[in-house]
Amino acid sequence: MSVMTKTAPRRTKPRVADSVFAFAIGCVATAVGVGLGLPHLMKVGADLAGVAGLGCLVAGLLLLGAGGVALVRLVPGWWRVLAVPALLAIVLVTVMALGQAVAATNVPDTSVGSRTPGSHGLEFTEVEFATADGVSLSGWYIPSANRAAVALLHGAGSTRSDVLDQAVVLARHGYGVLLFDARGHGRSAGRAMDFGWYGDQDLSAAVTYLQSRPDVEDARIGALGLSMGGEEAIGAAAADARIRAVVGEGATNRTTADRAWLSHEYGWRGTAQEGVEWLTYKATTLLTKADEPIALRAAVAAIAPRPVLLIAAGAKPDEAYADLYIQAGSPGTVQLWVVPGAAHTAGLRTDPGQWEQRVTAFFDTALG
């Protein structure tokens, strides 16, 4: 009589491919959740995009946990000590690069708010004009008293109301001012893109509108932009000679080439950051119909001999580094003012007297 013995079932290790797949999908889902869910939830609440993004984030973290643990278990011996930081580094780079790309191409709705030029005692008109690709943009126009005008561009995730203080200064010196919402922001139609890659088309349409005004001379039009708006103004002026002068405050980067100074200033850390930026912009090209624009350093060279004034935040050293790199594209035509102690785009608030004197003197000279 034979004796049947039972053996314990062998514990099978998870397949490498399954673990890698779960970890990879977890990285992507987490990045999408961070880039989509968090901005929407913080800015507009539990809308569809915010809830979907939160769902992606939760699912991504679960997959990261399951896939990451499985991968670490597959690593033999003391090599596991190296596997954990390696996997964490992959997660960090993916979230930083893809998360930024998703956030820049899936922008929450922005409200214009209740303030208008009229709140400052200024006469103004509600205006609308269309871009070459058929997008309707909305703005305010303050009439010119000196036959010159400035298109005023706001930063990412904001609207025309966020540049009202700058408009008041320009209007006080007689300039016509066109404050308009970038596409997808405020009351403008279209899909928002917070790297400013639609800036050429939007600003070109604004200049065409200004040229249609009887109070503005065609050859006396400038542009002033903050942050993303400054980058848009510089890039658009490179392709549109009708823009006779540009002021860009807080304008630093919107392409990989704009970050080439990082390795020079910060060594290996800068080189690593350049790599993350490269991944960010490459991912962005897959998520938007907009073409990647000209680098800012190349743009100022194309703008010459027309003048450019860059304004950098003294409290943000990287802004000065970035602007010095941009200025090197055309040192003879690009001025740089670093505002001591100023935060990003806070030059007017930090030193209103100097800001008014420098900016208006620049436009007075450039626009006659």
Automatic annotation (TrEMBL):
<dbReference type="GO" id="GO:0052689">
    <property type="term" value="F:carboxylic ester hydrolase activity"/>
</dbReference>
<feature type="transmembrane region" description="Helical">
    <location>
        <begin position="79"/>
        <end position="99"/>
    </location>
</feature>
<dbReference type="InterPro" id="IPR050261">
    <property type="entry name" value="FrsA_esterase"/>
</dbReference>
<keyword id="KW-0378">Hydrolase</keyword>
<feature type="domain" description="Serine aminopeptidase S33">
    <location>
        <begin position="146"/>
        <end position="254"/>
    </location>
</feature>
<feature type="transmembrane region" description="Helical">
    <location>
        <begin position="20"/>
        <end position="42"/>
    </location>
</feature>
<keyword id="KW-0812">Transmembrane</keyword>
<dbReference type="GO" id="GO:0004177">
    <property type="term" value="F:aminopeptidase activity"/>
</dbReference>
<dbReference type="InterPro" id="IPR029058">
    <property type="entry name" value="AB_hydrolase_fold"/>
</dbReference>
<keyword id="KW-1133">Transmembrane helix</keyword>
<keyword id="KW-0031">Aminopeptidase</keyword>
<keyword id="KW-0645">Protease</keyword>
<keyword id="KW-0472">Membrane</keyword>
<comment type="similarity">
    <text>Belongs to the AB hydrolase superfamily.</text>
</comment>
<dbReference type="InterPro" id="IPR022742">
    <property type="entry name" value="Hydrolase_4"/>
</dbReference>
<protein>
    <submittedName>
        <fullName>Serine aminopeptidase S33 family</fullName>
    </submittedName>
</protein>
<dbReference type="Pfam" id="PF12146">
    <property type="entry name" value="Hydrolase_4"/>
</dbReference>
<feature type="transmembrane region" description="Helical">
    <location>
        <begin position="48"/>
        <end position="72"/>
    </location>
</feature>
